[in-house]
Write a structure and sequence with these properties.
- The protein is an alpha/beta fold.
- It contains 7 helices and 11 strands.
- A 9-stranded mixed beta sheet has the order 3-4-2-1-5-6-7-11-8, with helices on both faces. The protein has a two-stranded antiparallel ribbon with strand order 9-10.
- The protein is globular and about 55 Å long.
- The structure holds manganese (II) ion.
- Manganese (II) ion binds next to strand 5.
């Protein structure tokens, strides 16, 4: 078993290192992560310029490389052969901050896992519900091992991954694992207009951190709020299947 570990927070992120070390329990580990933070860059594929890869020392004898591209680029390059050994499985994370509800379309962590499913590999994305720079990833790494053990022993359908979020609690205070569906994030984005020294306006999309609807039982947001590890099966098929029949009754011509 050879496991590729990637992320979107960048090759030096402590969550990546924690996940890589934890995955050694299951076989050979190769780390390929983005050179720079790619959080909220989604499923970007770099086609307009060349990509470069560099060997990186992240300690503990972990074979690690950085790529000057997106998380999906890291996964694609590796699985397509930049590393000669075949990859059996891809794990992404542990992200600095949860990936819940609509976050999944922004998330580079989840995008890396989606890229792996496109390349026909088993894939799991891991996030810790703590965006602070000095978060403790040990409980999330332990939970990741428990999830990956099951993923190795069971089949996942094509183009399907597991999106795993871990609450910010010591391991012995985590209440257990819940299989969930995506909940509803509430974003608090605000456009912040500022002016450069020439008096020209520039913009930040800022505002407070998103919250979410914690009242709907069975969602990822609900599970994390209640101290459970949330495991959401996610598929790349974004078709709104429930709309197909009624959409056929519209009068397009
Ligand atoms: Mn991130």
């Amino acid at each position: 078993m050879r496991i590729l570990v990637s992320n979107d927070d960048g090759i030096l992120a402590p969550g990546l290192r924690a996940l890589a070390l934890a995955m050694r329990e299951f076989g050979d580990v190769i780390v390929v992560g983005p050179e720079e933070n790619q959080s909220a860059n989604g499923h970007r594929k770099t086609l307009s310029r060349p990509l470069r890869i560099s060997k990186v020392n992240i300690g503990e004898d972990v074979e690690a490389y950085s790529v000057d591209g997106s998380p999906a680029d890291c996964v694609a390059m590796t699985v397509l052969g930049v590393i000669k050994q075949p990859i059996d499985m891809v794990v992404s994370g542990i992200n600095r901050g949860a990936n819940l509800g609509q976050d999944l379309t922004y998330s580079g962590t989840v995008a890396a896992a989606f890229e792996a499913t496109i390349q026909r590999r088993k894939a799991v994305a891991f996030s810790l519900d703590n965006p602070s720079l000095n978060a403790d990833y040990s409980a999330a790494a332990q939970a990741a091992c428990m999830v990956v053990r099951e993923v190795i022993q069971n089949a996942l359908p094509p183009m399907t991954l597991l999106n795993v979020n871990v609450p910010n609690l010591p391991f012995d205070q985590i209440k257990g694992f819940k299989v969930t569906r995506q909940g509803m994030r509430v974003y608090r984005d605000r456009l912040d207009e500022r002016f450069d020294p020439m008096g020209r306006p520039y913009y930040w999309i800022g505002g407070d951190a998103p919250t979410g609807d914690i009242t709907v039982e069975g969602t990822d947001i609900w599970a994390i709020h209640n101290g459970y590890v949330s495991i959401t099966p996610v598929q790349l098929d974004m078709t709104a299947h429930t709309l197909i029949d009624s959409l056929r009754d519209w009068h397009f011509n």
